[in-house]
Amino acid sequence: MKVRPGQVIRLSLFCLTGVACASFVANTLSVPVRGSTDSYSFEFTDVEGLNPGNPVTMSGVRIGRVDSVAFADNGGGTSKAIVDVEIESRYSLESDVRAAVRYGDMLGARYLALTQDDSATTVSARQLEPGDTIPLAQTTPPINLTALMNGFKPLFAALQPEQVNTLTRSFVETFNGQGQAMTTLLDQIATMSSGLVDRQDVFAQLLTNMNTLLTSVDERQPELVGLLDGLNDLSISVVGQNDQLVSLLDQGNRTVSSLAQIMAGSNGAFGQTVQQLESVTGSWIASTDEFNRLLVNLPQFADAANRIGSYGSFISLYLCNFTLKAGDMEANIFGPTHSPVCS
């Protein structure tokens, strides 16, 4: 196979162009630091989202990049993160420098922001040497913006997507140290919460009812504790008797099915029985006093019946009189003679 010089030249140019593009992309992604650099270490309690290659800024100016992020033991069962950074040698850091992990954009990118304490109390701060470590007391972990936004879920549910985006953008700008966004943030919150003000009576009534409910629960705390303990014991018993519970549910299903068939075949008799039962209970309730007297006298009746049968397992009955009346006519069937018991 014969290779032409022109083909070799075109292939070489293509390969060189590909290598140049790859190098350009790699340099763009890695964000290298120009010139000589000095290395420093920062201790953080949390560096979620911070990765090697993220920029390091001071007063909004990029002065370096994150070199590595490593896990370290902090003693006492706790841990910390060690962040190694490269800072351009022309920038010097003092011992009072503070570092914070902040959001770089809406996509969640992070960067390391450095600030110097210019107050009068730090006039004795010394200049850091390359390789020095900034302790936990001078670093701030990133804000968990996800947890913050989750607290606003009920509010976001009533908002339009454009309003949610505006509010979220204001939060990010505010927590990035851009105080000028605070006015916009407060205006957005005021506008979005205007609907809550219109329903303040409903919320006031809700809080009042909740207060009443919590007061009742607090007053009945012993009963509530007993109820929970009983439910716990019941649950333990049910868990320990799984086979019997399954059998009970199976038999109960058949029993309920049979009862349903009986009710369906009663041709309305079951409904009539329920209605008559309501009448019976109504009459019973109206005669509560008489029923109470019956229950009070029932022991005396039982004692009398016991004395009557004290001579054996029989009861002697004596017919003292048997009279028939029809209008003004009256007839004594057995005559005027009575048993001596009746005298």
From TrEMBL:
Keywords noted in UniProt: Signal
Xref: InterPro entries: Mce, Mce/MlaD, Mce_C, MlaD_Phospholipid_Transporter
Protein's name according to its UniProt entry: MCE family protein
GO term, biological process aspect, one: biological process involved in interaction with host
Any Pfam family hit: MlaD
Mammalian cell entry C-terminal domain boundaries: 124-250
UniProt entry tagged with the keyword Signal: yes
Signal peptide: 1-22
Domain Mce/MlaD: 38-116
GO CC term, one of those recorded: extracellular region
Source organism per UniProt: Rhodococcus qingshengii JCM 15477
